[in-house]
Design a protein that fits this description.
Elements lengths: L21 E3 L3 E2 L3 E6 L5 H14 L15 E5 L4 H15 L8 E3 L10 H14 L3 E5 L12 H18 L2 E7 L18 H5 L2 E7 L5 E7 L8 E8 L2 E8 L11 H11 L6 H8 L3 H13 L3 E4 L2 E4 L5
Parallel strand pairs: 3-7, 3-8, 4-5, 4-6, 6-7
Antiparallel strand pairs: 1-2, 8-9, 9-10, 10-11, 12-13
Length: 318
């Protein structure tokens, strides 16, 4: 007969003091798993490294958010050469006034780490057991597996393994993950690429996006605490200092997105020659079937004309 699972009455569970609820105040809960997400070129890796430097040194993350429990950090940066990782961390240390030589960040130097390979999982477990880090940073998820990210049944076991690491070693886990293209206007968690498992998994999630005018905005989601308002960030370089900095506490929202017909009209207005269907689809990011429907309606109303080589705006009526 199998032994029962351990259990306690709710009243016997140890309360967590308020000051220990956070690893990084207002950004990342103590021993939380979660996502640092965003579209390409949104500085996701810089944010994850800023968190790593802060937890390892005790310096304020983004020069504002206090670290409640500093300690060793374990990092795997799958897409960057090791000298690039060093240069970025060193630049953040200078911006944060941290002694790089004493920084307790440990970088996995293996060529690959695959969460879907048993031997790799065992070696990662052994590494965590040896270091006992406060924070594990894995960047990015797409380089950590060969499963279908859109299939919940394939993604869920990998995320469950990371949750197991968090509980077994009492460590926070930051997973850097891409948002889908064109997802900047979607609700942050819903813009993540692949299965909805990613959004549901995180205790603390940080999302970076570009606004229509190119500003970088950080949004925060917490499972068990209020979330702070979005912040405007900028990747600031000053001599040998290169790090994200907060540029504004209040971020004005983007205007509501244009409907597909107006996006088509704007694309045609910006063109000097007739636009073929493929170019309109690329400019407007509209699926072919929907695009054909919208173009047919615009032609029927006389706003758009079909011409040799593509489509043009109809001349204004006199």
């Amino acid at each position: 007969m199998a032994s029962p699972l351990p259990f306690r009455r709710a009243v016997d569970l140890k309360p967590v003091p308020e000051e220990q609820r956070w690893l990084i105040q207002d950004l990342w809960a103590a021993q939380a798993v979660g996502i640092v997400g965003g579209e390409p070129k949104c500085c996701k890796s810089f944010l994850a490294l800023d968190m790593a430097v802060s937890v390892a040194s005790g310096a304020h993350c983004l020069r504002r958010f206090a670290v409640a429990d500093k300690g060793p950090v374990l990092l795997f940066a799958a897409e960057d050469a090791l000298h690039v990782v060093r240069r970025r961390i060193e630049g953040i240390c200078r911006a944060a006034d941290v002694n790089f030589a004493r920084l307790d960040v440990h970088v996995i130097t293996a060529v690959s780490v695959r969460l879907d390979i048993e031997d790799h999982r065992r070696r990662l477990i052994d590494t965590l057991a040896a270091l006992c880090p406060r924070l594990l940073v894995l960047d990015p998820f797409v380089r950590l597996h060969r499963v279908d990210e859109n299939a919940s049944g394939e993604v869920a076991p990998l995320l469950a393994f990371l949750r197991e690491l968090q509980r077994r070693f009492h460590t926070a886990v930051v997973l850097v993950h891409h948002a889908r293209k064109g997802g900047a206007r979607a609700r942050a968690g819903q813009a993540l690429r692949g299965s909805s498992e990613f959004h549901a998994w995180g205790d603390s999630n940080l999302y970076l996006r570009r606004t229509h005018d190119g500003r970088l905005v950080l949004s925060v989601e917490q499972r068990a605490a209020p979330s702070i308002a979005p912040l405007a960030l900028d990747l600031h370089e000053d001599a040998d200092r290169l790090a994200l900095q907060i540029t504004a506490d209040k971020v004005t929202h983007d205007p509501p997105p244009l409907d597909p017909a107006e996006r088509i009209v704007n694309a045609l207005a910006a063109a000097h020659t007739p636009l073929p269907l493929a170019d309109i689809r690329e400019a407007c990011r509209i699926r072919t079937a929907r695009l054909c429907q919208e173009l047919a309606a615009l032609v029927d109303t006389g706003r758009v004309l079909k011409a040799e080589g593509g489509y043009v705006l109809a001349p204004p009526s006199s």
